[in-house]
């Protein structure tokens, strides 16, 4: 079996960014940039005040000195004017600073008498002036290609003063749930021997969060003819097909065979991880097929580890960004791990990461509060509360 790192390295070799499209900046939120977004001009474009106050010359050496108040500058003023050493201009935050000023004194320190003003001691040493280009210069790349336009990145994207940006197309994903025992939620209690089909709902939600578009949802019973037909339908409409279940080695585990008729080329299969040993990846032409375990917890763990980085890479993002494990403190002990690398579901707390008590691959209720995956190398010794572990947001 492959290690987790070996499987991810293989995944990187077969995933390529999709086509791109140009959108108005207002319609590009949460998309991945296909081309870098560079600033049209510097910011600030002029020297401006960082505070409401008074622009003067002389810095901090003028406490108690009276200045003649000769005007007021507001944001957007075309002519900032100029001042002599004994003059002051009232300025608002973002307003241009007059020529000759080297300090803006916050209004809290000001005492005004008619058309003159003086300042109490203690207002320095900050000058509260933003110099031209102190945020960024013209043609600086504010958002690089492959970055996602998160709410924070949208601020920088709009600040670039570009009306449009080029983004990667949203991957089209089809999801196939396999298994005779599965029933749509709300109907399982009416059919003896069935269980609610749940894994595909989590997978679909993850796809949408990652910017993909779920274009098809299928349920295939455990017959090869039906599954081959569904596989063909899914491949016809999707860039990526995700299959849950049917990935083990039983007589009715048909997830891979259902694609063989369509020209499946296996990239990897069976990985030395827990949960998720049966996860596999293949290609049918230019289409990717990812097989996930049928057990819901295993499906969600492997979707986080493989599907999320895959979808990011299809949009020009980096796989490494999606698999950034960080040191975290344990809030409870962990037992020795076995011969497979283990990803432990855990929840965050004030004391640190607390592993879920039930780590069974079919356990579904712990997923509600599990927000981290703890990465435990094979044969790791026991860990105590307070120990550092590597973890991934889940």
Structure commentary:
This protein is α+β, with helices and mostly antiparallel strands and 394 residues long. It has four domains: 4-16 and 169-322, Molybdenum Cofactor Biosythetic Enzyme, Chain A (3-Layer(aba) Sandwich), CATH 3.40.980; 24-43 and 145-168, no CATH class; 48-130, Molybdopterin biosynthesis moeA protein, domain 3; 326-393, MoeA, C-terminal, domain IV (Beta-clip), CATH 2.40.340.10. The protein has helices at 4-14, 151-159, 199-209, 224-237, 257-260, 296-314, 319-322; strands at residues 20-24, 37-38, 48-49, 53-56, 67-73, 87-91, 103-106, 110-113, 116-119, 129-130, 141-143, 164-168, 172-178, 182-183, 195-196, 213-220, 240-244, 265-269, 273-274, 280-284, 287-292, 326-329, 341-349, 352-355, 372-376, 388-393. Strands 7-4-6-5-9-8 form a six-stranded mixed sheet, with no helix packed on it. Strands 16-13-17-21-20-18 form a six-stranded mixed sheet, sandwiched between helices. A hairpin with a 2-residue loop joins strand 8 (110-113) and strand 9. The chain is elongated. It starts with a helix and ends with a strand. The relative contact order is 0.13.
């Amino acid at each position: 079996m492959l290690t987790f790192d070996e499987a991810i390295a293989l995944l990187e070799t077969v995933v390529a960014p999709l086509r791109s499209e140009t959108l108005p900046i207002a319609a590009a939120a949460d998309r991945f940039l296909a081309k870098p977004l560079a600033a049209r001009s510097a910011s600030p474009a002029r020297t401006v005040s960082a505070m409401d106050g008074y622009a003067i010359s002389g810095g901090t050496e003028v406490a108690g000195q009276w200045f003649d108040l000769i005007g007021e500058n507001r944001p957007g003023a075309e002519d900032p004017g100029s001042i002599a050493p004994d003059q002051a201009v009232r300025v608002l935050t973002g307003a241009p600073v007059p020529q000759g000023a080297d300090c803006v004194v916050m209004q809290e320190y000001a005492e005004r008498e008619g058309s003159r003003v003086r300042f109490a001691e203690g207002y320095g040493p900050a000058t509260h002036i933003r110099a031209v280009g102190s945020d960024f210069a013209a043609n600086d790349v504010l958002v690089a290609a492959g970055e996602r336009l998160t709410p924070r990145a949208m601020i920088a994207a709009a600040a670039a003063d570009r009306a449009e940006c080029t983004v990667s197309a949203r991957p089209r994903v089809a999801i196939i749930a396999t298994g005779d025992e599965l029933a749509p939620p709300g109907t399982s209690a009416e059919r003896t021997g069935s269980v609610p089909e749940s894994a595909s709902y989590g997978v679909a939600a993850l796809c949408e969060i990652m910017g993909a578009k779920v274009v098809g949802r299928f349920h295939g019973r455990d017959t090869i003819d039906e599954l081959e037909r569904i596989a063909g339908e899914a491949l016809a409409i999707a860039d990526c097909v995700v299959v849950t279940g049917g990935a083990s080695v039983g007589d009715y585990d048909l997830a891979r065979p259902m694609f063989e008729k369509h020209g499946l080329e296996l990239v990897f299969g069976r990985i030395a991880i827990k949960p998720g040993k049966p996860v596999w990846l293949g290609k049918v032409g230019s289409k990717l097929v990812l097989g996930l375990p049928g057990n819901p917890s295993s499906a969600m763990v492997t979707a986080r580890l493989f599907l999320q980085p895959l979808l990011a890479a299809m949009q020009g993002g980096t796989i490494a960004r999606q698999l950034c494990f960080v040191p975290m403190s344990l809030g409870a002990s962990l037992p020795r791990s076995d011969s497979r690398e283990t990803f432990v579901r855990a929840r965050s707390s004030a004391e640190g990461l607390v592993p879920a008590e039930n780590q069974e691959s079919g356990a579904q209720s712990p997923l509600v509060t599990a927000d981290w995956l703890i990465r435990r190398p094979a044969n790791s010794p026991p860990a105590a509360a307070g120990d550092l572990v590597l973890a991934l947001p889940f």
